[in-house]
Amino acid sequence: MEKRARFKSKWLPYLLVAPQILITLLFFFWPAIQALYQSVLLQDAFGGYSEFVWFDNFAALFGDPTYLESFRTTALFSLLVAFFGMAISLLLAVFADRVTKGASIYKTFLIWPYAVSPVVVGVLWMFLLSPSLGVLSHVLSWLGIRWDYMVNGNHAMILIVIAAIWKQISYNFLFFLAGLQSIPKSLIEAAAIDGAGPVKRFFTIVFPLISPTTFFLLVVNVVYAFFDTFAIVEATTHGGPGKDTEILVYKVFSDGFKGGDLGSAAAQSVVLMAVVILLTVVQFKYVEKKVQYA
């Protein structure tokens, strides 16, 4: 017999979801509406004067070479973070799934980085790769690599990519491990009996079965790279050297709060929101077709 929750009052379900709806309206929809409104205004840094300028802020943005360069920087950064973050997490999940003794210890150590705040992650890797004090930079110097993220844009990009991947790796690991543990072991054993090697078993059986998890993490990691990495950039490179690590979300902060150009910053946030929505729609429309749910 099917059991279904029944509410005596028809208003009780709405009352239960009201806090979540209120939070969504206050912290998601209202800021989005405010950004849309401010993006068509020309304002002074103190908010004492504003002028309606239609789409002049957007026209100025796409005519600015530095803003277009930040698109390239963000695209490269998000691609590296999503790809390597998911690949390393999947590899760790496969290894952890095969461990029989002390598995809980390994899993706990791999989950810990997710509890660390992005600012702390940025500061941690900044000290590890500091040109003068960093342990890892000294190891690189012994290998003949002159490391200095303060003057080398490629080194700075590598620094923030490593920090962003390390922060997100635990989240990806948890979902990949759950997906691997949900696969019936009988399928793997049957393929092994048929003579399929470990690599063939992974790409023909395991990976297709965890494709829904992979697709979900792809969307999450792209959004993470676009929005949630601001604190890492702020704590490490401040968008430098020059503009080499000034991703879109950091440029919004830099132009709005440091430069005082509120209208341009609002326009940038609207463009950033539109880009992320577009990427998410494209992923659901085209990438999801390759996902096997059954």
TrEMBL record:
Chain segments annotated as transmembrane: 12-33, 75-96, 108-128, 156-180, 201-227, 265-284
Major site of localization recorded for this protein: membrane
Pfam families assigned to the protein according to its UniProt record, in alphabetical order: BPD_transp_1
GO cellular component: plasma membrane
Signal peptide residue numbers: none
Alphabetical keyword list: Cell inner membrane, Cell membrane, Membrane, Transmembrane, Transmembrane helix, Transport
Membrane is among the record's keywords: yes
GO biological process: transmembrane transport
Annotated InterPro entries: MetI-like, MetI-like_sf, UgpAE/MalFG_permease
Localization (cell): Cell inner membrane; Cell membrane
SUPFAM superfamilies linked: MetI-like (SSF161098)
Top-level taxon: Bacteria
Membrane-topology annotation of the record: Multi-pass membrane protein
UniProt domain ABC transmembrane type-1: residue ranges: 71-283
The protein's assembly and partners: The complex is composed of two ATP-binding proteins (UgpC), two transmembrane proteins (UgpA and UgpE) and a solute-binding protein (UgpB).
Family statement drawn from the similarity comment of this UniProt entry: Belongs to the binding-protein-dependent transport system permease family.
Protein name: sn-glycerol-3-phosphate transport system permease protein UgpA
Species name: Herbaspirillum robiniae
Taxonomic classification: Bacteria, Pseudomonadati, Pseudomonadota, Betaproteobacteria, Burkholderiales
